[in-house]
Amino acid sequence: MARMAGRRLLAAVPLLGAVTFGVFALAAASPFDPARAHAGSAGLGARQDVLDQLRENLGADRPFVARWWEWLSAALTGDLGDSLSLRQPVSQVIGERIGWSVLLCGVAFVLAVVVGTALGVLAARRRGGLLDRAVTSLSYTLEAAPPFWLGLLAIWFFAIHLGALPAGGLTDTGTDVATAGQVASHLVLPAGVLAVTQLPWFVLYVRQGVGDALAEDPVRGARARGLSERTVLLGHALRSGLLPVLTLIGSRVPELITGALLVETVFSWPGIASATVEAATKVDFPLLAALTVLATAAVLLGNLLSDLLYGLADPRVAHEGM
Amino acid sequence: MTARSIRGVAATAMAGVLAAGAVACSTPGAGGDGGAGGKDSLVVGLANEPETLSPLLGYGKDGNSKVFDGLLRRDAAMKLRPALAAELPKVTDDGRTYTFTLRRGVKFSDGEPFTAKDVVFTYRTILDEKTNNAAKGELDAIDKVTAEGDDTVVFALKYPYAPFAERTVLPIVPEHVAKGQDVNTGSFNTAPVGTGPYVLTGWSKGEKLTFKANPGYWGGEPEVKKLTMAIIKDDDVRATRLRSGDLDGAILPPNLAKGFKGDKTKRTITAKTTDFRGVTLPTANKVTGDTAVRRALDLAVDREAMVDKLLEGAGRAGYGPVPTGSEWFTKGTERPHDLEKAKKLLDDAGWKPGGDGIREKDGQRAAFTLWFPAGDKLREEHALAFASDAKKAGIKAEVRSGTWEVIEPRMKDDAVLAGGGNPADPDFDLYNLLHSSLALDGFNNMAAYANPDVDKALEEGRRSGDKAARKAAYDTVQRGLADNPGYVFLTHVDHLYVMNDAWKDLSTQVEPHDHGLGAGPWWNVEDWQPKK
User: Fold this and answer.
1) Are B132 and A31 an interchain contact pair (Cβ–Cβ within 8 Å)?
2) Mean of the pLDDT values across residues A42-57?
């Protein structure tokens, strides 16, 4: 198992290198001018010599391969460079924000897995029943709905129409300190929306897995032995039906990250994902490169995690072959 | 360690904890955490967030920066008043030397004294070519800045520059804090220290900035103890949060500000501005470079209709960068809407209507492209209104949108819906927009306007120290622009603010195009007094 993890990590190194190269190549190909983006509205009154000086200071006029190599060698020593749009070192930007993103994604993900599994089991218990049909069609509808749209809908209903929950931010506007209660009430809507966007996959997979398992021999055997329906459902059918869900957990990580991009933006959540949007729209490539590496690493870890979990849950799977 | 000494340590620790607890309890609840509504706290909603809080990179360069002070400041009537300087500067050497005597006894919020060294450090750092300050061109006149003792600073200019004092509202940075860190990315960008009425307590990017009153402020501690500036990009969300009581005040577009008319607890405050919208008429383009076409377009546009329809009355017709209400405006250069006169001008100049109603002259169709920056709804509406007015005179302006990267290379031949305006001095807008030496230099003089008489008057206006002579020079400029309009100026846009009616004597300054957190009724929040 450790060997597999090690092998995967080694394979990740060239991949991360290629991804950052891609980001810098995209930056060079884009028509946007980092100097002008940096100058912002002041750039509209700036003279050409000031803008040229700015471009030189930012190193924006040098070939992108050179800039990429410089960035990469500095990054390996722990210096991720400086964010152009936020006027801060990139490592500081990440340090300030990653905690809030992990909190949001973690809560949303746990919520999605738990609620998704529960709904899936309930739906699978009586396939074709009223509950099953309701849950399944709701899942398909939610899967088709874009997260930002759900977010805006949630703001309109809960924050503006009912006035029950805050529409965005980490704390109330007039409050400085991020107390647990403040954060919790502000977390409900974004985490709820993010969970809802992830929910359908878990519901549908669990429903399928548990439904199939209910028709298999071990379940029939358990029923024949006179075990209670509850034990049959949770102890036998759910256990074997959960196997595909474990794979799903890893493969949902990229979706979770893209979902977070939209949800954090809609709810002004001060996390990594909203910084990514900021970096992209302000042509802030040092920040974008670091955040892309982070996202890539998260996806790779997600895949590794699901493979490891799979091996633990199903003894027939041998890690050495992977 | 003996049992006795352990007991001693424990007792001391306990005493320490108790003392700390007592201190914590006796801390005055400055503002409290009650959000909006309190008399000593203020929460306002803004549309835009500063990119940095370091004056070295351009923050607060036009004053009212809250955290900092400049050598000078502007009052409600936009007159210069001393701030960190003890008095207005002495101008000698035919307007080439500005000497400031500094206020004594001023301390930065970290307790260190403010001295001439800080002033010199601030200006020298901004002018350093390694500093990524895009607005440094505004200080172009400075040749060198030197300290004489602790309380005198002397600016030597490259050329006599009458409006120079207006630039010295620029905030002063403490050398002992900002020196030694990277000016472009150092922590001073997000954790500034200044002499100003407020101290930054937090900045959650994209969400809000929070400030508390500076108890040691040299101008007296402000009554509003706690100031929060929430960044809310979406106009509708900002209006909703104002209505729900989350905000005490906000900037709103006219259509949303109207919704608060019936609300007795709120009042709408209109700020007059120099914030203009206009169309550049590129000199190199065969159609827009023609003086007859320029004058016809200038007469064909219905500015009053634009003010009524596009701005819902919150603005004024604009005939140049200088608004009609300004003391610098040249009376008699207003050009009322006159479509018939415009048509006649074009007929006389040989622009004859073609088959599709668009005029032609020597095989040249009277058509050009007009760009507006994508996503700017107000400029889009101005562009469409302009095109529709031009069409009535037989000139086709094809309206297109794009990012500045798309627009910039085309500015030589294509028209652009431009915006701008700085109220402090007529030189700032007029020189940059009209002087031929700045033609297509960055975003200055986007029309490549070239008029030798105007050039001469612009130079006269910036060099002369005599106000009457300056006024005469800018009269020449504005008359020159009326005779040969290289731009069709359309409107000056008012900025509207809706506020809880809880403070006395709120006012606004004349506001610039770029109105950050220093604009709005809270430009002087440090002087506010609650209504009894």
Assistant:
1) no
2) 78
Q: Which of A259, A241, A12, A284 is nearest to A146 (CA)?
A: A259
Nearest to B444 by CA among B427, B461, B423: B427
What is the phi/psi pair of residue A88, to 5°?
-140, 155
**What are the pLDDT digits (tens) for A277-289?**
878 877 788 888 8
Tokens of A281: 């729209």
Measure the CA–CA gap between A276 and A287, rounded to whole angstroms.
Answer: 8
Residue B23 has pLDDT above 60, yes or no: no
What chain A residue is nearest to B428 in terms of C-alpha separation? A45
For B25, residues 6+ apart whose C-beta sits below 8 A from its C-beta are none
Q: Which of B199, B83, B188 is nearest to B125 (CA)?
A: B188
Distance, CA of B473 to CA of A157 (rounded, Å): 59
Which single residue is written with the structure tokens 């975003």?
Answer: B443
Please give, rounded to a whole number of angstroms, the shortest distance from the CA of A293 to a CA of chain B: 22
Give the span between the Cα atoms of B132 and B343, in whole angstroms: 49
User: Regarding beta strands B249-252 and B495-500, do their DSSP bridges make them parallel or antiparallel, or are they unpaired?
Assistant: antiparallel
Asked if B228's CB is within 8 angstroms of A173's CB, the reply is yes
How many whole angstroms separate alpha carbon B141 and alpha carbon B132? 18
Chain A residues whose CB is inside 8 A of the B204 CB are: 169-170, 270
Mean pLDDT of chain B: 90
Confidence label for A41 from pLDDT (cuts 50, 70 and 90): low
B205 touches A: beta carbon within 8 Å: yes
Nearest to A142 by CA among A68, A203, A98, A87: A203
CB atoms closer than 10 angstroms to residue B217 = 19
DSSP 8-state code for residue A314: -
A76: Cβ–Cβ under 8 A, 6 or more apart, which residues? none
B246 CB neighbours in chain A (<8 A) are 172-174
Burial class (CB in 10 A: 0-12, 13-18, 19+), B529: exposed
Helix (H, G, I), strand (E, B) or coil at A248: helix
Pairing of strands B226-231, B41-46: parallel
Q: In what order do the strands lie in the sheet with B364-365?
A: B352-353, B359-361, B364-365
Does the pLDDT at position B331 exceed 50? yes
Of B130, B132, B208, the CB nearest to A173: B208
- Give the Å distances, CA to CA, from A133 to A138, A199, B138: 8, 16, 68
Strands B198-204 and A82-83: unpaired
**Residue B493 — φ and ψ, nearest 5°?**
-95, 125
CA dihedral A271, B60, A38, A280 (to 10 degrees): 20
* Distance between CA atoms of residues B399 and B391, nearest Å: 12
Write the DSSP string, B117-151.
HHHHHHHHHHHSTTS--TTGGGGTTEEEEEE-SSS
